[in-house]
Amino acid sequence: MPEMAEVETVRNVLKKRILNKKIVDVNIIYSKMIGKSSLKLNNLISQSFIDIKRKGKYLLFETQDYYLISHLRMEGKFFTKDKDEEIVKHEHIIITFNDNSTLRYHDVRKFGIMCLLKKNDLNKFSELNKLGYDVGDKNISIDYLLSKFKNKRLPIKTILLDQSIIAGLGNIYADEVLFRSKINPLKRGCDITSEEASSIIKSSAYIINKAIESGGTTIRSYTSSLNVIGHYQDYLMVHKRENEPCKICNSIIKRIKVGGRSTYYCPKCQK
């Protein structure tokens, strides 16, 4: 699943490729991924994407009058291709520009969503309103995290995946944040200390920034598009490293299930 770093990479690449091009056609091949509250995507015709923003794992394509909101879910990808290139399987939405280039949304599992809203109605999109602060936001303070954790008896790994607390962290980076913070993934949220909350804040910002610089993480479960190959997998300390030696203490990395998600950790570094 693409996480914050991968979505940010997609945003940065697309900004270089599609901004300020006039939209001349919108072809919806699989309409079920269009949100129920969405306006018709044909409203985009004669508009141009003037910016692409991001909130958590959501992309917000801004035009003169609208926001096209996109969430990639498990395996959604964007490609830019020439208009005359064949439409391949799993390309579900195709936006054509006046220079005969296209933006194509590709999704094998069809879990992704798109929703077109007028700019003034953006605050009515409930899923965005539910999101917490993005990783690295200055509003994520020790007091903020402790107030969110104090009544939670769930494992901290599960809590870090709650997008209403910190938006953008997913399974890969939650594992890495907890390792860098030396916190066991099974520790209850209500038991997190001020020192540990501070470490989560610093580690999250460091890891996400490093991952963005590296173009995200390319692993078997999610390969990026747009000819971008992420390299952060070269820096992973625990994720997908089951039965390999820890790079810090040489103990063997373990894999367990936490909240139904595969979780990797070092039993010595993260007691």
| Oligomer designation | single chain
Strand order across the largest sheet: 1-6-7-5
N- to C-terminal separation?
Answer: 28 Å
- The value of Rg in angstroms is 20 Å
Fraction of helical residues: 10-25%
Shape annotation: elongated
How many beta-strand segments? 12
Largest sheet: 4 strands, antiparallel
> Which structural category fits the helices and strands?
alpha+beta
Strand content: 15-25%
Q: If helices are DSSP runs of H or I spanning 4 or more residues, what is the number of helices?
A: 6
pLDDT averaged residue by residue: 93
Would you mind describing this structure in some detail?
The protein is α+β, with helices and mostly antiparallel strands. It has six helices and twelve strands. The chain has helices at residues 4-18, 126-129, 142-149, 156-160, 171-180, 194-213; strands at 23-28, 51-55, 58-62, 66-71, 77-82, 91-97, 101-106, 113-118, 133-134, 166-167, 254-258, 261-265. The strands form four sheets. Strands 1-6-7-5 form a four-stranded antiparallel sheet, with helices on one face. The protein has a four-stranded antiparallel sheet with strand order 2-3-4-8, covered by helices on one side. It has a two-stranded parallel ribbon with strand order 9-10. Helix 1 runs parallel beside helix 6 (194-213), helix 3 (142-149) crosses helix 6 and helix 5 packs across helix 6 (194-213). It is elongated, with a radius of gyration of 20 Å.
